[in-house]
Amino acid sequence: MPEMPEVETIKRDLEKKMKGKKIERVIIKNEKSVKLPSSTEFIRRMEGKVFTSVERKGKFLLLGLDSEDSLIIHLKLTGRLIYSKKGEELDYTRVVFIFQDHTQLNFTDVRGFGGMWLIPDREFQRIPALDNLGPEPLEEDFTVAKFRELLKGKKGKIKSLLMDQEFMAGIGNIYSQEALFLSQIHPERSPSSLADGEVEKLYKNLRQILKKAISYRGSSVDAYVDLEGKKGSFKSQLEVYGREGKPCFKCGTTLKRIEVSGRGTYFCPNCQS
């Protein structure tokens, strides 16, 4: 599933391509991809409108319209947004937005778990998963003190907590593992067991890994591509994710894989305690 660096890359691409685009026609090829409102209402409220803004909240994309509606998109596991010439046919296309300048934005989704919502501006309560998002880890006001406060009293496993979107927005399976490895913290540690120095290290490494991944335009370990269909190049920089049975870059110990909250999790049994 695309995580914050991948969705942020797409958001920045959309800002360059979509702002000021007038929607000439909307084609819905699979109604399941449109969550709100009905397909007929969705088309009626979008055709003839202009995209005026692009935002990201966690793994959600928010595209503002001049009608004071917002188009909300979540790519889930295999969703893609591909910008192309008008009339281009892509596999597994679910929704197509055709613009007056003879270009189009295609929403494709092999597995079909992604979706779109058209809601009045800022009425996020209509989408509970969006309305209940935790803080953004790269925001200026997300300080180490705030991170420490969020961790207080938390039970369970630190990796699972980092992936909880109500705890913190945008972190998923890839970057939680990478940050924990850099911080030398075992993914099954209890959040409440972390010493102040470990909290500071994890805070620093989370922000560092996210910024670096954005600079590489994300990690294409599964279906993710950018708006032009190109893969991100951060996969080559991953130090533990997907490297089961290979030597740790730091100590040479063979990396292991375990299940944490049902997700494959890679770590170094020597470096991470």
Q: Could you describe the 3D structure shown?
A:
This protein is of the alpha+beta class and 273 residues long. The chain folds into two domains: 4-131, Alpha-Beta Barrel (N-terminal domain of MutM-like DNA repair proteins), CATH 3.20.190.10; 144-267, Helicase, Ruva Protein, domain 3 (Orthogonal Bundle), CATH 1.10.8.50. Helix content is 26%, strand content 24%. It is built from seven helices and eleven strands. It has helices spanning 4-18, 39-46, 128-131, 144-151, 158-163, 173-182, 196-215, and strands at 23-28, 34-36, 51-57, 60-65, 69-74, 79-85, 93-99, 103-109, 115-120, 256-260, 263-267. A five-stranded mixed beta sheet has the order 2-9-5-4-3, covered by helices on one side. β4 and β5 (69-74) form a beta hairpin. α6 crosses α7. The longest helix is centred in the last third of the chain and has 20 residues, at 196-215. The protein is elongated. The two termini are 27 Å apart.
Strand content: 15-25%
Q: Strand sequence of the main sheet, in spatial order?
A: 2-9-5-4-3
Percent helix among the residues? Answer: 25-40%
Q: CATH superfamily name of the largest domain?
A: MutM-like, N-terminal
